[in-house]
Design a protein that fits this description.
The complex is a heterodimer of chains A (390) and B (195).
Chain A (H helix, E strand, L loop, with lengths): L1 E7 L2 E6 L11 E10 L1 H7 L15 E9 L10 E4 L2 E2 L5 H4 L15 H8 L5 E2 L16 E4 L7 E2 L6 H4 L5 H10 L8 E5 L3 H12 L4 E6 L2 H9 L3 E4 L5 H8 L7 E4 L10 H10 L9 H9 L5 E4 L12 H6 L3 E4 L4 H13 L11 E4 L3 H10 L7 E4 L2
Parallel strand pairs in A: 10-11, 10-13, 11-12, 13-14, 14-15, 16-17
Antiparallel strand pairs in A: 1-2, 3-4, 3-8, 3-17, 4-5, 5-9, 6-7
Helix pairs in contact in A: 5-6, 5-12, 8-10
Chain B lengths: L1 H10 L10 H12 L5 E9 L3 H9 L11 E6 L4 E7 L5 E12 L3 E6 L7 E9 L6 E9 L4 H11 L3 H18 L15
Antiparallel strand pairs in B: 1-7, 2-3, 3-4, 4-5, 5-6, 6-7
The chains are: A alpha/beta (390), B alpha+beta (195).
Chain lengths: 390, 195
């Protein structure tokens, strides 16, 4: 089959590789019909995530048609499914509590050591996202093996086209959980840092959850326009002092909840850095947490901080004083995708959530390397690239 | 001095293999076992299955190759004796006999290598109820005599990594198998194939 493979910094290639096969009883093989390039794929593209191997197949946002199943799969051939980027066993302590992105079993035993060293406990497995999360082959390919296929994939009813449901795999539930973590109450103002796909879906979700106002912060004019089109008030941090503006716009009280949909951005982390940090407390890029620091400073007293943005290592000069003295509560984590699939699919079907506005480019899979380059270099115009392998 | 450190560690409610002064403890354990050296490895996992199920699967040592990376096979003689065949480099194997010295169904299994083993070792696996509704806690403690000389080199190759890592990974696989019915893997051809 054809697949997008990683070979080094800014070096991804289309290659012919062997087809995946059923290995475990609960596996399924999916023929990919649509897959997207995620903002977090750019961290891989930029070589900021450690433990990628040359030849690894990338991609964790994908959907397609079931073409083969193991005896323990509940899927049947011909079904259309969207596959969550988080691989979850459905049986462990965490999965039972719907904390799917904390699954204890999906990261292969020999790969789980790395995250146990980094974070104290082994992290879950995920598709196409380095060997820290298991080294599973990703979905930017013609076919992909899906472990625990009786737990993750959601079957899509006929009549809902791919582009409407593809983002159930990651960014839509991620934006939704970011808003849920804000514990929105009537009258609340939510401020959202970062108007990438997750930020934009978070804005949409905040309104659906009853937010009175949403204020969006970014520096790309096109992305701010998209935020505005969804009903958010917007500010460009190149032009405005963000914290002062937020204080003024909320009558001196401040936003009730704040979302950091920026994360480590393009600064990334390395295993070496993270381990070194633990040992030496050296200064690790103080501006990497710029957005998060601003979030904590801007949030009102007793407010809620939600962090869907991805961080990997250690933060320097973290405003722990503001966090404590103001009595903020913080919720964060990789998305428990499986938990949100059904309600979100329903809302898409009812037309309450629009996802297609995000897609700026559609390319055949063969053009994936060009897609990465565009997404990397033209962030204002390129909001989302969808690849079509079949 | 050494005794003092061990006594203080024992005053904690924490398991001995988490004590700070492992060298002193190993020394003490070697003396007790009448070995030249001793190394202690311990690890606990919670498995979301009943104590009876987890015990029963583990008690049948023939199941070990399903989750222990280096164990090629375990032949079970009578109810207490077993013969272990462990993979070594270049198609070789290391073998030894073990006997179960204590067996409390549903709660405890202790075994030790019998006289003449290349690598003297003893294992203790305890099965405890976790908090209500949370399955079974499995605590594995392995004490072994790290071999010296050529055997030591072979031993290092067999286990590739330190036994502590091996035990950790084997217990993760045991948990996966008990909870999900399979061992998670991303190996080729299911993973990204690379030449």
């Amino acid at each position: 089959m054809r697949a997008l493979t990683w070979h080094g910094k800014h070096d991804v290639r289309m290659e012919t590789v062997p087809d995946p096969e059923i290995v475990n009883p609960r596996d399924a093989i999916i023929k990919v019909t649509a897959t997207a390039i995620c903002g977090s794929d750019l961290h891989l593209y930029d070589s900021y995530i450690p433990t990628l191997h040359r030849g690894d197949i990338l991609g964790h946002e994908f959907m397609g048609e079931v073409v083969d199943t193991g005896p323990g799969s509940t899927l049947t051939k011909g079904q259309r499914v969207v596959v969550p980027f988080v691989i979850a066993c459905g049986k462990c302590f965490f999965c039972e509590r719907q904390q799917y992105s904390a699954c204890d079993n999906s990261n292969p035993a020999e790969k789980a050591d790395m995250s146990e060293i980094l974070y104290g406990y082994p992290m879950t497995g995920a598709f196409g996202y380095s060997h820290l999360t298991g080294g599973y082959a990703g979905g930017q390919a013609e076919y992909v093996r899906v472990p625990y296929s009786d737990v993750g994939p959601i079957v899509i009813p006929d009549g809902l086209e791919d582009e409407k449901v593809l983002f159930l795999s990651d960014i839509l539930p991620t934006g939704w959980m970011a808003a849920e973590n804000c514990e929105i109450e009537p009258g609340d103002t939510v401020a959202v840092w970062g108007c990438g796909p997750v930020g934009l879906f978070a804005i949409q979700s905040c309104f659906l959850m009853g937010a009175h106002r949403v204020i969006a912060i970014d520096h790309y004019p096109h992305r701010l326009e998209l935020a505005r089109s969804m009903g958010a008030e917007v500010m460009n941090f190149h032009d405005v002092k963000v914290r002062e503006a937020l204080v003024e716009m909320t009558g001196g009280i401040g936003p009730d909840a704040c979302i950091d949909a920026v994360g480590m951005e393009s600064h990334g982390f390395t295993l070496d850095n993270a381990v070194d940090m633990a040992k030496t407390t050296t200064k690790l890029g103080t501006d990497r947490t710029h957005a998060l620091r601003e979030v904590i400073m801007a949030c009102r007293k007793g407010g809620r901080v939600s962090i869907p943005g991805v961080y990997g290592g250690m933060a320097d000069k973290f405003p722990i004083g503001a966090l404590m003295e103001k009595g903020l509560s913080v919720k964060t984590g990789q998305t428990h995708v499986q938990k949100y699939l059904r309600p979100l699919l329903e809302m898409i079907g009812e037309g309450k959530i629009d996802t297609t506005f995000l897609i700026s480019h559609r390319l055949p899979l063969e053009d994936a390397p060009r897609g990465y380059k565009m997404f990397k270099e033209q962030q204002n115009e390129v909001t989302k690239v969808v690849l079509k392998p079949h | 001095m050494s005794q003092d450190k061990i006594e203080r560690a024992a005053e904690s409610d924490a398991p001995l293999h988490t004590a700070v002064h492992q060298r002193d403890i190993s020394h003490d354990l070697a003396e007790t076992a009448e070995w030249n050296h001793a190394a202690l490895v311990g690890r606990t996992v919670t498995i979301n299955r009943s104590r009876a199920e987890v015990y029963a699967f583990f008690r049948d040592f023939r199941n070990f190759p399903a989750f222990m990376e280096n164990v090629e096979r375990v032949d079970v003689g009578d109810n207490r004796r077993s013969h272990w065949v462990v993979k070594a480099p270049a198609g070789q194997t290391v073998e030894w006999d073990s006997e179960i010295t204590e067996d409390q169904p549903g709660s405890l299994i202790i075994w030790r290598s019998v006289e003449g083993a290349d690598i003297r070792n003893t294992g203790r696996v305890e099965f405890r109820d976790a908090a209500p509704g949370r399955g079974t806690e499995v605590e594995a403690i392995i004490l072994y005599e790290p071999p010296a000389g050529d055997l030591g080199k072979l031993f290092a190759k067999v286990f590739q990594k330190e036994p502590k890592i091996q035990v950790r990974r084997d217990l993760r696989r045991f948990k996966q198998l008990m909870e999900t019915g399979e061992v998670s893997t991303a190996r080729a051809p299911d993973a990204a194939p690379r030449g």
